[in-house]
Amino acid sequence: MTKLKQFCDQFKYFLGHYTRRPKKKGRPRLLKANKKTVNLTVLSGLAFVLLVGLLGSIQAMTLSSKVTNLENAVSKAKKTTPTASTTPTVDNRLQYYLNDFVYYYFTIPEDSDGQATQAKKLLEFYGAEPNILSQGQTKTPSKLN
What we know:
By secondary structure, this protein is mainly α. The protein has 4 helices and no strands.
């Protein structure tokens, strides 16, 4: 029991540090600055801006020289390696596959036999037959332009 009381006292002491302090009443007082401190503040701000500009320009010059050196190295490397004049062959099988899929997906014929063949053609594009959730609906004929 004494330990509990001791713990409660320590807790109250700890929370005592965080009590709300009363606000000072009255109008806020202006701080008067003399000419010397104002001049010092303005000059130090101006010096800071000039120093940042100077350091930025120095960094830009060093970066520019690095880029120039890199461009020279790349141009030398291009001169030493022969250019290959082989034309790449383009394989359009994927484009044909996607074009056919889009055509069969959006083109629905009017007759039921045509719709059945369209459904079979569409199932060829899937690796496994998809789940059909809405059965019994009539398909409205459509054509892809």
